[in-house]
Design goal:
This protein is mainly α. The chain has a domain at about 100-260 and about 290-305: Orthogonal Bundle (MetI-like fold), CATH 1.10.3720. The protein is about 70% helix and about 0% strand. The protein is built from 14 helices and no strands. It starts with a helix and ends in a 6-residue tail after the last helix. Its main location: membrane. Belongs to the binding-protein-dependent transport system permease family. This is ABC transporter permease. It is a multi-pass membrane protein. It is found in: Cell membrane.
Protein backbone atom coordinates (compact mmCIF):
# COMPACT_ATOMS: atom_id res chain seq x y z
CA UNK A 1 0.00 0.00 0.00
CA UNK A 2 2.75 2.44 0.94
CA UNK A 3 4.69 1.65 -2.23
CA UNK A 4 1.57 2.31 -4.30
CA UNK A 5 1.04 5.69 -2.63
CA UNK A 6 4.72 6.53 -3.14
CA UNK A 7 4.37 5.70 -6.84
CA UNK A 8 1.31 7.95 -7.18
CA UNK A 9 3.15 10.75 -5.38
CA UNK A 10 6.19 10.36 -7.67
CA UNK A 11 3.99 10.54 -10.76
CA UNK A 12 2.20 13.61 -9.39
CA UNK A 13 5.50 15.41 -8.78
CA UNK A 14 6.66 14.62 -12.33
CA UNK A 15 3.43 15.90 -13.92
CA UNK A 16 3.03 19.19 -15.80
CA UNK A 17 0.28 20.28 -13.39
CA UNK A 18 2.58 19.95 -10.37
CA UNK A 19 5.31 21.85 -12.21
CA UNK A 20 2.88 24.64 -13.03
CA UNK A 21 1.62 24.71 -9.43
CA UNK A 22 5.06 24.98 -7.83
CA UNK A 23 6.12 27.75 -10.24
CA UNK A 24 3.15 29.99 -9.41
CA UNK A 25 3.52 31.57 -5.98
CA UNK A 26 0.10 33.22 -6.12
CA UNK A 27 -1.58 29.87 -6.70
CA UNK A 28 0.41 28.27 -3.87
CA UNK A 29 -0.71 31.05 -1.51
CA UNK A 30 -4.31 30.61 -2.69
CA UNK A 31 -4.11 26.86 -2.09
CA UNK A 32 -2.68 27.44 1.39
CA UNK A 33 -5.43 29.95 2.26
CA UNK A 34 -8.13 27.61 0.95
CA UNK A 35 -6.65 24.72 2.95
CA UNK A 36 -6.60 26.88 6.09
CA UNK A 37 -10.27 27.69 5.60
CA UNK A 38 -11.15 24.02 5.25
CA UNK A 39 -9.05 23.04 8.27
CA UNK A 40 -10.49 25.86 10.38
CA UNK A 41 -14.05 25.15 9.26
CA UNK A 42 -14.14 21.38 9.71
CA UNK A 43 -11.83 21.45 12.72
CA UNK A 44 -13.90 24.15 14.43
CA UNK A 45 -15.08 21.93 17.33
CA UNK A 46 -11.41 21.35 18.21
CA UNK A 47 -9.73 24.56 17.04
CA UNK A 48 -12.27 27.31 17.74
CA UNK A 49 -11.59 29.31 20.94
CA UNK A 50 -15.26 29.08 21.92
CA UNK A 51 -18.44 27.30 20.92
CA UNK A 52 -20.60 30.28 19.97
CA UNK A 53 -23.72 28.17 19.58
CA UNK A 54 -23.61 26.55 23.00
CA UNK A 55 -26.23 28.63 24.82
CA UNK A 56 -24.99 27.50 28.23
CA UNK A 57 -21.58 29.08 27.62
CA UNK A 58 -22.86 32.47 26.40
CA UNK A 59 -22.85 35.55 28.59
CA UNK A 60 -24.81 38.61 27.46
CA UNK A 61 -22.44 40.84 29.41
CA UNK A 62 -19.76 39.92 26.84
CA UNK A 63 -21.85 41.41 24.03
CA UNK A 64 -20.41 44.05 21.68
CA UNK A 65 -16.81 43.55 22.79
CA UNK A 66 -14.50 45.21 20.22
CA UNK A 67 -11.49 43.41 18.71
CA UNK A 68 -8.68 42.63 21.15
CA UNK A 69 -6.40 45.38 19.83
CA UNK A 70 -8.97 48.13 20.41
CA UNK A 71 -9.80 49.87 23.67
CA UNK A 72 -12.21 47.72 25.66
CA UNK A 73 -11.26 44.54 23.83
CA UNK A 74 -10.25 41.32 25.56
CA UNK A 75 -7.56 38.83 24.45
CA UNK A 76 -9.98 35.90 24.62
CA UNK A 77 -12.14 37.55 21.92
CA UNK A 78 -9.61 38.30 19.18
CA UNK A 79 -12.13 39.66 16.66
CA UNK A 80 -14.61 40.85 19.26
CA UNK A 81 -18.12 39.60 20.01
CA UNK A 82 -21.62 40.12 18.63
CA UNK A 83 -24.80 41.25 20.39
CA UNK A 84 -25.23 37.82 22.04
CA UNK A 85 -21.67 37.69 23.36
CA UNK A 86 -20.55 35.14 20.76
CA UNK A 87 -16.89 35.19 19.71
CA UNK A 88 -16.67 36.46 16.13
CA UNK A 89 -13.64 34.31 15.22
CA UNK A 90 -15.44 31.19 16.41
CA UNK A 91 -18.64 32.09 14.58
CA UNK A 92 -16.64 32.57 11.37
CA UNK A 93 -15.07 29.12 11.76
CA UNK A 94 -18.41 27.42 12.44
CA UNK A 95 -20.16 29.49 9.77
CA UNK A 96 -17.50 28.66 7.18
CA UNK A 97 -18.14 24.97 7.76
CA UNK A 98 -21.82 25.38 6.90
CA UNK A 99 -21.11 27.59 3.88
CA UNK A 100 -18.45 25.25 2.49
CA UNK A 101 -20.61 22.16 3.07
CA UNK A 102 -23.61 23.71 1.33
CA UNK A 103 -21.42 24.97 -1.52
CA UNK A 104 -19.64 21.64 -2.00
CA UNK A 105 -22.81 19.52 -1.92
CA UNK A 106 -24.60 21.96 -4.24
CA UNK A 107 -21.73 21.68 -6.73
CA UNK A 108 -21.83 17.86 -6.50
CA UNK A 109 -25.59 17.92 -7.13
CA UNK A 110 -25.29 20.36 -10.05
CA UNK A 111 -22.36 18.40 -11.51
CA UNK A 112 -24.20 15.06 -11.27
CA UNK A 113 -27.36 16.46 -12.85
CA UNK A 114 -25.47 18.40 -15.53
CA UNK A 115 -23.19 15.50 -16.51
CA UNK A 116 -26.14 13.12 -16.76
CA UNK A 117 -28.21 15.44 -18.93
CA UNK A 118 -25.17 16.44 -20.99
CA UNK A 119 -24.34 12.79 -21.70
CA UNK A 120 -27.93 12.08 -22.69
CA UNK A 121 -28.14 15.12 -24.95
CA UNK A 122 -24.79 14.58 -26.65
CA UNK A 123 -24.91 10.82 -27.07
CA UNK A 124 -28.58 10.34 -27.97
CA UNK A 125 -29.09 13.53 -29.99
CA UNK A 126 -32.37 14.17 -31.77
CA UNK A 127 -35.43 15.16 -29.77
CA UNK A 128 -33.73 14.40 -26.42
CA UNK A 129 -30.86 16.74 -27.25
CA UNK A 130 -33.21 19.48 -28.49
CA UNK A 131 -35.43 19.30 -25.39
CA UNK A 132 -32.59 19.36 -22.85
CA UNK A 133 -30.78 22.20 -24.59
CA UNK A 134 -33.94 24.30 -24.92
CA UNK A 135 -34.58 23.90 -21.19
CA UNK A 136 -30.97 24.95 -20.59
CA UNK A 137 -31.39 27.98 -22.87
CA UNK A 138 -34.50 29.08 -21.02
CA UNK A 139 -32.77 28.78 -17.64
CA UNK A 140 -29.77 30.78 -18.89
CA UNK A 141 -32.08 33.73 -19.46
CA UNK A 142 -32.59 34.03 -15.69
CA UNK A 143 -29.93 34.93 -13.09
CA UNK A 144 -28.79 32.01 -10.94
CA UNK A 145 -29.77 33.80 -7.74
CA UNK A 146 -33.32 34.25 -9.07
CA UNK A 147 -33.61 30.54 -9.87
CA UNK A 148 -32.40 29.67 -6.38
CA UNK A 149 -34.89 32.09 -4.79
CA UNK A 150 -37.70 30.66 -6.92
CA UNK A 151 -36.94 27.07 -5.93
CA UNK A 152 -36.59 28.09 -2.28
CA UNK A 153 -39.90 29.99 -2.38
CA UNK A 154 -41.78 27.12 -4.01
CA UNK A 155 -40.38 24.69 -1.44
CA UNK A 156 -41.30 27.03 1.40
CA UNK A 157 -44.86 27.18 0.10
CA UNK A 158 -45.12 23.39 -0.25
CA UNK A 159 -43.53 22.44 3.08
CA UNK A 160 -44.63 25.31 5.29
CA UNK A 161 -42.43 27.53 7.43
CA UNK A 162 -41.66 24.98 10.17
CA UNK A 163 -40.73 22.06 7.91
CA UNK A 164 -38.82 24.38 5.62
CA UNK A 165 -36.64 25.55 8.53
CA UNK A 166 -35.89 21.94 9.48
CA UNK A 167 -34.90 21.08 5.92
CA UNK A 168 -33.27 24.45 5.17
CA UNK A 169 -29.83 23.04 4.31
CA UNK A 170 -31.23 20.39 1.94
CA UNK A 171 -33.50 22.93 0.25
CA UNK A 172 -30.59 25.33 -0.14
CA UNK A 173 -28.37 22.65 -1.69
CA UNK A 174 -31.07 21.70 -4.21
CA UNK A 175 -31.85 25.36 -4.98
CA UNK A 176 -28.23 26.25 -5.70
CA UNK A 177 -27.60 23.00 -7.55
CA UNK A 178 -30.54 23.60 -9.88
CA UNK A 179 -29.11 27.05 -10.62
CA UNK A 180 -25.75 25.80 -11.96
CA UNK A 181 -26.36 22.49 -13.77
CA UNK A 182 -26.59 24.16 -17.19
CA UNK A 183 -22.86 24.90 -17.45
CA UNK A 184 -21.99 21.26 -16.88
CA UNK A 185 -24.64 19.99 -19.30
CA UNK A 186 -23.58 22.29 -22.15
CA UNK A 187 -19.87 21.56 -21.63
CA UNK A 188 -20.35 17.78 -21.44
CA UNK A 189 -22.68 17.78 -24.46
CA UNK A 190 -20.11 19.61 -26.57
CA UNK A 191 -17.33 17.24 -25.54
CA UNK A 192 -19.51 14.17 -26.14
CA UNK A 193 -20.39 15.35 -29.66
CA UNK A 194 -16.65 15.37 -30.40
CA UNK A 195 -15.77 12.12 -28.63
CA UNK A 196 -18.62 9.92 -29.86
CA UNK A 197 -17.37 10.03 -33.45
CA UNK A 198 -13.85 8.92 -32.58
CA UNK A 199 -12.49 5.49 -33.40
CA UNK A 200 -12.52 4.05 -29.89
CA UNK A 201 -16.27 4.69 -29.60
CA UNK A 202 -16.88 3.17 -33.02
CA UNK A 203 -14.86 0.13 -31.98
CA UNK A 204 -16.92 -0.23 -28.80
CA UNK A 205 -20.09 -0.18 -30.88
CA UNK A 206 -18.72 -2.80 -33.25
CA UNK A 207 -18.04 -5.28 -30.45
CA UNK A 208 -21.61 -4.84 -29.25
CA UNK A 209 -21.30 -2.75 -26.09
CA UNK A 210 -24.59 -1.06 -25.17
CA UNK A 211 -24.85 2.72 -25.56
CA UNK A 212 -25.14 3.58 -21.83
CA UNK A 213 -22.05 1.53 -21.04
CA UNK A 214 -20.06 3.21 -23.82
CA UNK A 215 -21.13 6.64 -22.58
CA UNK A 216 -20.22 5.94 -18.95
CA UNK A 217 -17.10 3.79 -19.35
CA UNK A 218 -15.45 5.27 -22.43
CA UNK A 219 -16.84 8.74 -23.19
CA UNK A 220 -17.34 10.17 -19.70
CA UNK A 221 -13.69 9.84 -18.49
CA UNK A 222 -12.54 11.84 -21.52
CA UNK A 223 -14.83 14.81 -20.82
CA UNK A 224 -14.17 15.26 -17.10
CA UNK A 225 -11.25 17.70 -17.43
CA UNK A 226 -13.35 20.80 -18.22
CA UNK A 227 -15.96 19.65 -15.71
CA UNK A 228 -13.44 19.73 -12.85
CA UNK A 229 -12.48 23.28 -13.77
CA UNK A 230 -16.12 24.38 -13.77
CA UNK A 231 -16.68 22.64 -10.43
CA UNK A 232 -13.77 24.49 -8.82
CA UNK A 233 -15.03 27.87 -9.98
CA UNK A 234 -18.64 27.00 -9.14
CA UNK A 235 -17.66 26.20 -5.55
CA UNK A 236 -16.90 29.88 -5.05
CA UNK A 237 -20.13 30.87 -6.82
CA UNK A 238 -22.15 28.44 -4.70
CA UNK A 239 -20.68 29.83 -1.48
CA UNK A 240 -21.53 33.38 -2.62
CA UNK A 241 -25.06 32.29 -3.58
CA UNK A 242 -25.58 30.68 -0.18
CA UNK A 243 -24.32 33.81 1.56
CA UNK A 244 -26.56 36.02 -0.58
CA UNK A 245 -29.67 33.93 0.06
CA UNK A 246 -28.97 33.76 3.80
CA UNK A 247 -28.27 37.49 3.89
CA UNK A 248 -31.62 38.16 2.19
CA UNK A 249 -33.37 35.91 4.71
CA UNK A 250 -34.44 33.22 2.23
CA UNK A 251 -31.58 30.79 2.88
CA UNK A 252 -30.57 29.42 6.24
CA UNK A 253 -32.43 30.66 9.34
CA UNK A 254 -30.51 32.94 11.76
CA UNK A 255 -30.17 30.06 14.25
CA UNK A 256 -27.93 28.11 11.82
CA UNK A 257 -24.43 29.56 11.40
CA UNK A 258 -23.18 30.49 7.94
CA UNK A 259 -21.20 33.40 6.59
CA UNK A 260 -24.38 34.82 5.07
CA UNK A 261 -26.36 34.76 8.33
CA UNK A 262 -23.40 36.28 10.21
CA UNK A 263 -23.17 39.16 7.74
CA UNK A 264 -26.95 39.63 7.94
CA UNK A 265 -26.79 39.78 11.73
CA UNK A 266 -23.84 42.18 11.75
CA UNK A 267 -25.23 44.67 9.24
CA UNK A 268 -27.94 45.62 11.76
CA UNK A 269 -25.23 47.11 14.00
CA UNK A 270 -22.89 48.49 11.34
CA UNK A 271 -24.10 52.09 11.58
CA UNK A 272 -24.08 52.05 15.38
CA UNK A 273 -20.31 51.51 15.47
CA UNK A 274 -20.01 47.73 15.97
CA UNK A 275 -18.34 47.31 12.58
CA UNK A 276 -16.47 44.13 13.43
CA UNK A 277 -19.63 42.02 13.63
CA UNK A 278 -20.15 42.20 9.85
CA UNK A 279 -16.74 43.28 8.51
CA UNK A 280 -14.82 40.19 9.63
CA UNK A 281 -17.33 37.61 8.28
CA UNK A 282 -17.55 39.64 5.07
CA UNK A 283 -13.76 39.73 4.75
CA UNK A 284 -13.57 35.97 5.39
CA UNK A 285 -16.13 35.36 2.63
CA UNK A 286 -14.23 37.60 0.19
CA UNK A 287 -10.86 35.96 0.92
CA UNK A 288 -12.30 32.45 0.61
CA UNK A 289 -14.02 33.18 -2.70
CA UNK A 290 -10.94 34.93 -4.11
CA UNK A 291 -8.68 32.02 -3.18
CA UNK A 292 -10.97 29.42 -4.75
CA UNK A 293 -11.40 31.54 -7.89
CA UNK A 294 -7.63 31.87 -8.29
CA UNK A 295 -7.28 28.09 -7.98
CA UNK A 296 -10.00 27.61 -10.57
CA UNK A 297 -8.33 29.99 -13.01
CA UNK A 298 -4.99 28.23 -12.56
CA UNK A 299 -6.57 24.79 -13.01
CA UNK A 300 -8.27 25.92 -16.20
CA UNK A 301 -4.94 27.07 -17.65
CA UNK A 302 -3.03 24.04 -16.35
CA UNK A 303 -5.44 21.61 -18.03
CA UNK A 304 -5.45 23.51 -21.32
CA UNK A 305 -3.00 21.73 -23.67
CA UNK A 306 -2.74 24.83 -25.88
CA UNK A 307 -1.08 26.75 -23.02
CA UNK A 308 1.53 24.13 -22.14
Amino acid sequence: MMSLLAEYWRRARDSDIWYSFTRNKLVMVSAAVTALFFIGAYGAPLLAPHNPFDLASLNLSDGFKPPAWEEGGEPQFLFGTDDQGRDILSTIMYGSRTSLSVGFLAVVFAMTLGITLGLLAGYMGGAVDAFIMRVADVQLSFPAILIAMLVDGVTRGLLGADKHSQAAITVLIVSIGLSYWVQYARTVRGQVLVEKNKEYVQAARVIGLPGPLIALRHVLPNVLGPVLVIATINLALAVITEATLSFLGVGLPPTQPSLGTLINTGQQFLLSGEWWITIFPGAALAILVLSVNLLGDWLRDALNPKLR
